[in-house]
Amino acid sequence: MSALATACGVDDDEVVRLKEGESLADAEYCGSFGCERVDEFCAEVFLEFGRSPPICVRDDVCERLECANSNRRCAIFDGLPGQVKCID
Q: What pLDDT, on a 0 to 100 scale, did the predictor assign at position 33?
């Protein structure tokens, strides 16, 4: 049972949160063919409550985020969808 919960959840060390005054309210959900704007890509953001649904973000999304664990840094991983999370 714990393996199932871990697979769906987010590890505490991977959690990103919005910096004060920032928002992802302008991020649209990814469509069937990805994101409409050429400067955006589809990614899940690893938040405290779990992964976001795939949303369209720019490659500077980490400038709006900080890691819950201050010893880590925000990183973007390619994939379908990509991932935005904290790493060593």
A: 85
Q: What is the CA radius of gyration of the chain?
A: 13
Q: CA-CA distance, 1 to 6, in Å (whole number)?
A: 9
Per-residue H/E/C for the chain: CHHHHHHHCCCHHHCEEECCCCCCCCCCECECCECCCCCEEEEEEEECCEECCCEEEECCHHHHEEECCCCCEEEEECCCCEEEEEEC
Give the model's pLDDT for residue 8. Answer: 56
If 0-12 CB within 10 Å is exposed, 13-18 middle and 19+ buried, where does residue 17 land?
A: middle
